[in-house]
Specification:
Elements: H1 7-28, H2 32-52, H3 56-81, E1 83-89, H4 96-106, E2 112-118, H5 121-129, E3 135-139, H6 140-143, E4 150-154, H7 157-164, E5 172-175
Parallel strand pairs: 1-2, 1-3, 4-5
Antiparallel strand pairs: 3-4
């Protein structure tokens, strides 16, 4: 036990302690992009620990395959999963202030808003039902009902919670066509 803490091995112990520390930082990271950076650091520290303990082949494999491949795949997965796809009718684009109002509550969750144009109301509704988009936004003038100027429908209960708490309801209405699945209503 005394041999572990002598001056020669102190740097090895310090680097080895970095491994669980960086692993913990990856786990507690809220922002997925920062978690990717921390995963890269974790892989580099792991490769360094392997090299220090004489496993150069394992260190090289970890550095090249483990870290680089996993970071590339994670980056692609994070980039593609943090998007809210909002269907709109092509000639009836929502005004920019409405889009900014929509982007604001999505920002803390690191979600981007992607507009997906559709030619008419029927294809827009079919896209929502077919799960091509997460929500739809359309002008009430197109539906001919006396209601707020724009209506937003979402099929994702969590998006409904995020948006309904932050959007001014006098400007738009948010409808949730699919209630959250609970044991009581799943039977």
């Amino acid at each position: 036990m005394n041999d572990l803490w002598n001056e020669e091995n102190l740097y090895i112990v310090a680097i080895a302690v970095l491994l669980p520390l960086t692993a913990g930082l990856v786990i507690v990271q809220v922002n997925p992009y920062y978690a990717l950076v921390m995963r890269g650091i974790l892989g580099a520290v792991a490769a360094l620990v392997y090299a220090l303990f004489g496993a150069a082949d394992v260190a090289l494999t970890e550095a090249l395959v483990g870290t680089m491949l996993s970071i590339t795949l994670y980056a692609i997965a994070v980039r593609s999963s943090l998007i809210m796809r909002l269907g709109i009718i092509e000639p009836d684009l929502p005004p920019e202030d409405l889009l900014q109002t929509l982007r604001q509550p999505l920002r803390p969750y690191h979600l981007r808003l992607e507009l997906v144009p559709y030619p008419d109301q029927e294809s827009l509704q079919a896209a929502l039902e077919g799960k091509e988009v997460h929500g739809i936004c359309f002008s009430q003038a197109a539906v001919k009902t006396p209601a707020p100027q724009y209506e937003i429908q979402t099929r994702v209960p969590r998006l409904y919670q995020i948006l309904s708490g932050h959007l001014p309801l006098e400007k738009m209405a948010i409808l949730n066509p699919a209630p959250p699945l609970t044991p009581a209503n799943s039977l």
